[in-house]
Amino acid sequence: MDIAAQSFNLYATTTGKTGKKTRGKIGETSFREVRVLSDDAGKQTSVVTNLSSEKAGGVAVCAALFQRWANQENVFKYQKQEYELDALLEYNQGGKSEDERRDEERIPADIDHPNPAYAKLTKKIKDLAQKQTQLLAKYGLAVEKQAGSDGAEGIDAEQLAKVIEEIRGSRHGRELTQISAQLEPLRARRANCQPREEAAPAGYVRLRSGIRQIVDAVKMSAYDLENELFEMLGAHYPNRDKEGRKLIVSAMCSGGELRLEKGKIVIKLEAQSSPKRTRAIDAICQTLNRRQAIFPGTDLRIEFDTQRAV
After folding, report:
1. pTM of structure
2. What average pLDDT does the segment 9-19 reach?
């Protein structure tokens, strides 16, 4: 179902140096909704787009978006595994003083984070409550086993009271009493504790974002280059879709030799684990050589080669 486009106002929120937020209109745009009904249980997926129906029909919009979802998920998963994208790069240390670092990397006043004290109390309460539930279950089974039942008339009241008193004085009963006594003050303390707190007053500072941006940019560039090498394999490696990236990584980690010749730098890689893999890497080398790449800062041409398997 393709729902007609509607016009919406666009707003932007900015935060000043004092932490005060201001909101203002920056323009208008139109969106339309495409709903896709699935075959199972009548579920539907809603897709919102700013493309007009003249530019792209409902089927084209959904097909492009669903395909992009799978591609994006696989790309980011691969980059996190192989390139450690968004990994921790440094701790809050450096040549600058603590005051200078805080001035440069102060966290805005509107950013909060989970309160560690609240989370710690919640974990203690959860652990004790779980243990209390287990003991109560044992308590009930013991009552049912020892008091017995005489059918429709139920459990005898005097016998039940006697059994409960015996269990209460047992090890499990004393442990249950202790847990109940611990839970009450913990819950009272958590009630007076906020689930989240502002990050800046709590003493947290933001790590330098510039270094992360540079490193992530280098990692993304390396991934783009890997994609280009992957495409170069083409028909040279029949099993490219399944093993192509592994082959490229293996070639990058291969040993070899680097020598300087007249007018060029020669990079010669060792043979791969099989002649078929070596021929595929050699085909990439020949493709790169046709680009006549120059080593930065010199007039030397870069030439790639592979050691042929004997």
Report:
1. 0.49
2. 78
